[in-house]
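In the lab's daily routine, each protein ends up as an entry in a very long ledger. A line of letters takes care of the sequence, but it says nothing directly about the fold. The three-dimensional part falls to structure tokens, numbers that each stand for a local backbone shape. The outcome of that step, for a single protein, is printed below.
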Amino acid sequence: MIRAIRASKTAAEERAVVRRECAAIRTAISERGQEELRHRNMAKLMFIHMLGYPTHFGQMECLKLIAAAGYPEKRIGYLGLMLLLDERQEVLMLVTNSLKQDLNHSNPFIVGLALCALGNICSAEMAQDLAPEVEKLLRSRDVNTKKKAALCSVRIVRKVPDLAENFMGLAASLLKEKHHGVLISAVQLCTELCKASKDALEYLRKNCIEGLVRILRDVSNSSYAPEYDVAGISDPFLHIRVLKLMRMLGQGDADCSEYMNDILAQVATKTESNKNAGNAILYECVETIMGIEATSGLRVLAINILGRFLSNRDNNIRYVALNILMRAITVDTQAVQRHRVTILECVKDADASIRKRALELVFLLVNDTNVKPLTKELVDYLDVADPDFKEDLTAKICSITEKFSQEKLWYLDQMLKVLSLAGNHVKDDVWHALIVVISNASELQGYAVRSLYTALQAYSEQGSLLRVAVWCIGEYGEMLVNNVGMLEAEPPITVTESDAVDAVELGFNRYSADVTTRSMCLVALLKLSSRFPSMSERIKQIVAQNKENMVLELQQRSIEFGSIIQRHQSIRSSLLERMPVLDEAAYLVKRASATQATIPAYKPASGVTPGDLKLPNGVAKPAAAPLVDLLDLSSDDAPVTSTSATTTPNDFLQDLLGIGGTNLSTAGVPSASTDILMDLLSIGSSPSQNGLLDLSSPAQEQKPVSAIPQVVSLVPEPMDLLGSLSSSASSSG
């Protein structure tokens, strides 16, 4: 049959052979006098079952073979029982009596067959019925029977945890055996008992610790034994099982942990680390030391072993070492800090998984004392890092600098390096935060704009660097040209007004597909027209290039800005004044809230909350704003909070960058001409919000809003949005 199936060239031929054989087996089952061929038919059915074809019609044949008297028939019957049936089959209940008889059989081989079958397909009902027989077999003199009975007991305890107390004493007595097969089975049974019952855990703590220490000492000091030797190490499997059980018993128990300390130190120092089996034992030993109440010296020894693992050539060994170090850092930070250099080398590894895990560990190692050298190492590696890794690396560096920056100058320098080397991988909220910090650091604004201008000459392809540089040149262009606010160690640079305009024009032309960057460049050019009056004509020509742009945002800006430069000279200086200082504390709170809003509902919000936010650079916490019951519809005279304070230029990012914000409050009565123009320069607002109504007319200011919509002409008359402002400004002058 097997030759015919293997000779089939197509699936159809194979199915035909299987159908023919199944038909012959059905015929043999239905006929009498075919008992001598029953075990051969069952062997065929098992092969067909392994090919994936249905064989349910032969289940009862398994029971008949099991009930037979001979060992060959029982062997095939139990094998078929384990393959063709599982614990969910109702037919399995019929085999319980046969199992009970075979467990009490005088032939140890038949007893072994019954124990193997029971250990593989035992259900809860069978466990309760046959547990007494298995307990008896645990006291057997035959080594193989004891071993199989112990493994069968593991299955029984998993199915019926209430039976754990019946096996506690027997499991403890098995630890006194000499045979390694019995020992490893007994250790596995003890491990399962600890998981199933707290009473069993306490019992084994009192009665098994001494035996486990003796087993581990004997195995470690034993001479060469060919039966258990693996690469020159005696029975590493027993080593590992015993260490796992010791970790369970010593966790949270100081007395047990103290009793284990000596043997764990002996295993950690004597085991060879140049073999894979030895590394497996050392790994489990380290896990045990970190899991129990070990002494500080023993933990340092374990962390030093992990440090040796980090120098191993095997990537798997280095990866598991990094994983344990991430857990060990909460236990003994100083011991992990000693291996900082090795961990930093792993950040530069060729393997992507090791790089990522090492970077996460470095992030956990950073504190106030080592933040500068660690950040320098990471920034230096950023220049040669793989493009796929740069995004994770820049995110960690930015997070470190924001979290641990004590000096704004150091923060600016590090962020400038990151933007220069990996500006295209920096997230928007990072460079937004940098702009907020620059706005608040008045003594560093000149240094910042000069540094950004210099970096832009070399790294103009970095998008985030260009955006920050363009914003700073637009705001502090006169500081750039006049070298205002020079620091002591800062080299002077010579920049003309034309050079500043060239830098913005370069970004404007390079990023033709980026609406955000081009919009920022237009705003910067408009501001430079006020800072550098001699460059107004050139700036007007640059701005006018987008009057017919297909992007409505750029087209609208180009037309409006050109009108400001050409026709409104009198109000341009007041209109284009420097942005007010942005509220850094309020921005940090808003950023933390936005981060938490992106966390899925099923995850615990472990991020920063406004209540416990750590504000860097000595920024004070903002006062909590009073909350208004927005759903209180029963009160007619509910207090209405004024939105003028929140829609003034303190709406930092929107007004700062003029991107994506719609100022709804300015659709009503403006308080000053600056408010109108802030709304005028906003990006992404609707035409009605950009001042297409003559908001400066006194009649409109006094006229109440009617509840009935007014019919207006579909074709609005062209009007000068700033005409009234310019006339009023000239009359007041």
Notes: The first helix runs from residue 2 to 7.
